[in-house]
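Summary of Year 1 activities. Much of the first year was spent building the evaluation harness for sequence design. The harness presents a backbone, in tokenized form, and records the residue chosen at every position. We chose the following record to illustrate the format because it has been used consistently in internal testing since the harness was completed.
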């Protein structure tokens, strides 16, 4: 419940503090006195967006603070999950700064608007004249029926299945689309892969091919050079080997007289051995028979294929070309994997469809059952509100496919006049009838829900006389289970209240200020008398006001 509300520098309010009690509370005052301003301030700490124009003094910040008793709401886990200090009294504060920025706090911890909006919906349910328009909204009507059923687990179980089913269905559609594209490209991928695979790509092989091509392209020059080298080493009259042998023999003759000549002989002997080995290798190369045009053509064809593939796939190396080949191979494998994944998801979707069908049927049956109870309960309240000829029932139609709320289309059918068949609310109900119908529905829903505070903002529009008293009676009955606050202009409703606040305007330093007073019994009688009389309050009117309170 709302225990207190503090408002500083908001619209016409300079500084206002209100303590609220349990039971049924009314707020009255002349039109324009500021009743809705107080409600607007409250809505800010419930998560509504702020407007800088709401600052009374544009050079000072606006502060709105509410204290709520949450002992019955089981919110400890929520507070722990959001790192908030838990207490049975929760303080929500909203600050609007002159800079245009806004800040929100829960128990002095900074929080987001989304968080206080969540808490606000737990603490308070505000019902205004404009909300009667929701009565024509199909989603609102369905929500009313589900709330009245008081079986949240059946709905949440269905919704969990729906989320899983929708996700699986979307995944299957995505996979099928990807597979269709892949299948269209499969022949292209296969051709590209085979072409690259048949090229037998290898970095080492490519280097060998380039080396071999260079050799084959200069084969004649190589043959001439090798022949000349072989001739110089082995075959000329003054061959290198013969001259080395002569040199060794010459120096060997003097080793007995010149010891240093021995080391020279050893080095020359080693050189002679190396020269013989070089000569042998040159002879072997000179006898190589693979220097032929056919081999050169084959080598160049292999290299040309690799160069063409590099250009085709916009790469500069064999390593990159190998990566392209592997990419095509992966795409081909993915096509096979996609088909396997499609089969798996189809099987999963079939199982989920059976589960969600069962869950939707269970939810549908519950709604059918509850619709009869809701219809009779609404009519019972409407009859109390003086609408003795009112007819109300819930029409439920099954729709094709699954939605996040099930397979049902819900429509409230209503008529307040005898002999006229119930029809769609938007086409058949007047403003006053809508207000009473919404009050009836709200009173029933709030009996089902654990809603600590219910606020009615002039829901009694279009209601007067004896019916107004009955509206007040229903609000009074509701206050047995919930804190009920009603902003009203009807004395019949005000007379039913346990607590009565009056909002009025005063002048201070040339400025208009909204103020609120908690009325005692005599002040309440005077206020009700004022509401009853369009002229001067007489003793007779005061007597009527007293009778209304006593009655």
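For this record, the design step produced the sequence shown next.
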């Amino acid at each position: 419940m709302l225990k207190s509300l503090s408002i500083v520098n908001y619209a016409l309010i300079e500084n206002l503090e209100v303590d609220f009690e349990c039971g049924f509370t009314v707020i009255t005052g002349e039109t324009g006195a500021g009743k809705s301003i107080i409600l607007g301030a409250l809505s800010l700490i419930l998560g509504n967006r702020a407007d800088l124009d709401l600052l009374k003094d544009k050079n000072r910040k606006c502060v709105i603070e509410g204290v709520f008793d949450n002992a019955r709401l089981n919110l400890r886990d929520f507070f722990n999950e959001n790192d908030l200090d838990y207490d049975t009294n929760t303080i929500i504060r909203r600050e609007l700064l002159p800079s245009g920025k806004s800040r929100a706090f829960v128990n002095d911890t900074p929080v987001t608007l989304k968080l206080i909006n969540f808490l606000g919906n737990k603490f308070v349910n505000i019902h205004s004249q404009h909300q009667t328009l929701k009565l024509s909204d199909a989603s609102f009507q369905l929500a009313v029926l589900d709330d009245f059923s008081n079986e949240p687990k059946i709905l949440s179980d269905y919704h969990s299945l729906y989320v899983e089913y929708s996700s699986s269905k979307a995944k299957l559609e995505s996979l099928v689309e990807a597979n269709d594209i892949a299948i269209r490209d499969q022949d292209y991928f296969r051709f590209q892969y085979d072409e690259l695979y048949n090229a037998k790509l290898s970095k080492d092989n490519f280097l060998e091919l380039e080396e071999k091509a260079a050799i084959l392209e200069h084969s004649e020059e190589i043959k001439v050079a090798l022949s000349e080298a072989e001739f110089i080493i082995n075959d000329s009259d003054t061959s290198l080997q013969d001259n080395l042998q002569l040199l060794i023999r010459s120096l060997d003759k003097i080793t007995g007289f010149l010891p240093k000549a021995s080391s020279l002989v050893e080095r020359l002997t080693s050189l002679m051995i190396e020269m013989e080995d070089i000569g042998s290798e040159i002879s072997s190369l000179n006898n190589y028979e693979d220097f032929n045009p056919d081999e050169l053509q084959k080598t160049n064809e292999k290299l040309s294929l690799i160069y063409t593939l590099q250009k085709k796939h916009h790469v500069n190396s064999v390593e990159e070309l190998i990566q392209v080949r592997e990419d095509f191979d992966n795409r081909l494998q993915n096509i096979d994997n996609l088909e396997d994944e499609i089969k798996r998801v189809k099987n999963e979707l079939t199982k989920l469809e059976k589960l969600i069908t069962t869950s939707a049927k269970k939810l549908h049956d519950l709604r059918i059952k509850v619709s009869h109870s809701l219809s009779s309960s609404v009519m019972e309240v409407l009859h109390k509100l003086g609408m003795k000829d009112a007819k109300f029932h819930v029409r439920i139609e099954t729709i094709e496919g699954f939605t996040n709320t099930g397979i049902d289309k819900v429509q409230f059918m209503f008529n307040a006049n005898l002999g006229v068949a119930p029809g769609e609310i938007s086409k058949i109900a007047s403003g006053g009838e809508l207000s009473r119908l919404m009050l009836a529905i709200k009173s029933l829903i709030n009996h089902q829900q654990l809603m600590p505070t219910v606020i009615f903002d002039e829901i009694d529009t279009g209601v007067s006389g004896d019916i107004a008293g009955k509206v007040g009676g229903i609000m009074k009955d509701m206050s047995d289970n919930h804190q009920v606050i009603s902003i009203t202009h009807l004395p019949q409703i005000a007379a039913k209240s346990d607590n009565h606040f009056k909002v009025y305007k005063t002048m201070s330093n040339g400025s208009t200020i909204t103020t609120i007073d908690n009325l005692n019994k005599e002040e309440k009688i005077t206020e009700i008398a004022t509401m009853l009389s369009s002229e001067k309050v007489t003793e007779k009117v005061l007597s009527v006001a007293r009778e209304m309170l006593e009655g």
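The chain has a mean pLDDT of 85. Quantitative recovery figures across the full test set are reported in Table 2.
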